[in-house]
Structure formats: structure tokens, C-alpha cells
Specification:
The chain is 36% helix and 11% strand. By secondary structure, it is α/β, with parallel strands linked by helices. A hairpin with a 6-residue loop joins strand 5 and strand 6 (156-157). The model is unreliable at 1-8 (pLDDT under 50).
Length: 255
């Protein structure tokens, strides 16, 4: 799931630029992303149009899209919402938003962050989901470190990719950072070839890792009747889980 929602940030901040508006704009992007993930899980269960593995959803974006993905990943408690937008968040569906399919899970499993930032690194906790970041250390739009955002006359502090990476490493979480030395905002290669390769190499071990013994669906290191019960539930849900694909036919079914 990829999002690029710079238009939301731009429109809101052109109208009235301040810290509250900036956080609201970021929250709208976060809501869009969570809504997209819920839609995909709903579709996967009912129609299965896209034949996705809903246990391996990764989110990413560039600039405001990166901000949306990072904040959606790590701002996951209502108690973490800044006090000055608490009421607005409550009126707009809280952390999840109100864009449909509320009964489905909006969580995802990793972040591809290109020139994004998080509101507060304290939202990142031990064993949080992995993130791969790429950022210019002279970025004058979205700070690389913990400098102020000055775009549209703003004067607020957020934590960029370098600070995110530091926090992840301190907690022993899985993180990688590529720094474009001396470069400004979005200093990417043509066709994003380097960025695609860098993020793919980082995420390979996460996305394609051996998640345990094939058939041990409930992760108790035994294959028994409890796994069969789990498999039946997976089949009925219409979702696909690699750990339950015993005959490796890319389908969870009676075979």
C-alpha cells in the first residue's frame, strides 16, 4: 500500500499555516492510509480481487506520503495524540479515521520512508515494526534530524529519518537509513531505481523470512489439531497465509 498525499498537506497549510493545522493535515493522510488498508482486507475477505497476503502489508510514501506512513505506523494509541488536536481527532474517527470498513484491521508490517518524519520518536516502542528510510541531510522541507519545519511559515519541531533511525537502533528494532549527503528534499535517482533496490534488500528478510514450521499455524512448535482448526478459519476468511500453505500451491484450501 503506497500513499502520496502531498496535496492534503499543501492545501491545508496554504489556507492557514500553524502547528495545529500541520498535525491535522498529517492525521488526514494517516486516516487515508489506514482506510486503504482496511479496504484491501475487506476486499481480500469478500472478493479477493487482488489476491494479496494480508499478513504482509507494507506502507510507504514520499515526503507527506512518508509522513503519513511513519505516523500511521507509530502513533497507535489515543493517549499519544497531541492535546491540541484531541477534540478534532475524536470528531474525525480518532486514530483510525472514519473512511469506512471499521471492522477490519488497519495495521501493517513495515514502513518505506522517503523524506518523511514522525511527530514524536517517543511513539516508537520496543519491537515496533521495521522502517527503511532515505533522506537528504540538507533537507529544507522535511527535516533530516530534529530541526524545525519552516515550510509555509511554520515553526514546529518534528523528528526526521535520522532521529527515527537512532530511536529504532536504541530500542534494538529493525531499521536502515540511507543518507544523501549534502542533498535537499527528494534527491532520488531517476526512476527510483536505487531506492527500490535499497528498500527491497532491507525488507527481503522481513517479507520473505521463514516464519516458522510450515503447518504450525498457531506457533506453538507443534503440528496438531489446533493448527487444523486455525487452517479452517483461514480458509473460511478467504485470506492467504504462507505458514498454512503446506503443499505450496499459493492457496489455503482443503488440499
Amino acid at each position: 500500500v503506497a500513499v502520496a498525499i502531498d496535496y492534503r498537506l499543501t492545501l491545508d497549510l496554504l489556507i492557514f499555516a500553524n502547528e495545529t493545522t500541520a498535525y491535522k493535515a498529517a492525521a488526514k493522510g494517516m486516516h487515508d492510509l489506514k482506510s486503504a488498508i482496511r479496504f484491501l482486507r475487506m476486499n481480500n475477505e469478500i472478493y479477493n480481487d487482488y489476491r494479496i497476503d494480508s499478513g504482509r502489508i507494507y506502507a510507504g510514501g514520499v515526503s507527506a506520503g512518508g509522513i503519513s506512513a511513519v505516523n500511521a505506523a507509530y502513533l497507535n494509541l489515543e493517549s499519544e495524540v497531541p492535546s491540541f488536536i484531541e477534540e478534532w481527532m475524536e470528531d474525525n474517527g480518532g486514530i483510525e479515521g472514519n473512511s469506512g470498513n471499521p471492522e477490519y484491521d488497519s495495521s501493517f508490517h513495515g514502513v518505506i520512508n522517503l523524506c518523511g518524519a514522525v511527530g514524536q520518536t517517543e511513539w516508537i516502542i520496543e519491537n515496533d515494526i521495521p522502517v527503511v528510510s532515505m533522506h537528504g541531510d540538507q533537507d529544507s522541507t522535511v527535516p533530516y534530524d530534529d530541526n524545525l519545519v519552516t515550510l509555509f511559515g511554520l515553526n514546529i519541531q518534528i523528528d526526521g529519518s535520522y532521529i527515527i533511525h537512532q530511536r529504532m537502533q536504541e530500542l534494538g528494532n529493525y531499521s536502515a537509513l540511507h543518507t544523501y549527503v549534502g542533498q535537499d528534499h527528494v534527491p532520488f535517482s531517476s526512476n527510483l531505481e536505487f531506492e527500490a533496490e535499497y528498500s527491497s534488500l532491507f525488507l527481503y528478510d522481513v517479507v520473505c523470512s521463514d516464519n516458522g514450521i510450515i503447518g504450525d499455524i498457531n506457533g506453538d512448535e507443534e503440528i496438531n489439531i489446533l493448527d487444523i482448526v486455525s487452517l479452517v478459519n483461514i480458509i473460511l476468511s478467504g485470506e492467504y497465509q504462507g505458514i498454512a500453505d503446506i503443499n505450496d500451491d499459493l492457496s489455503n484450501n482443503i488440499l
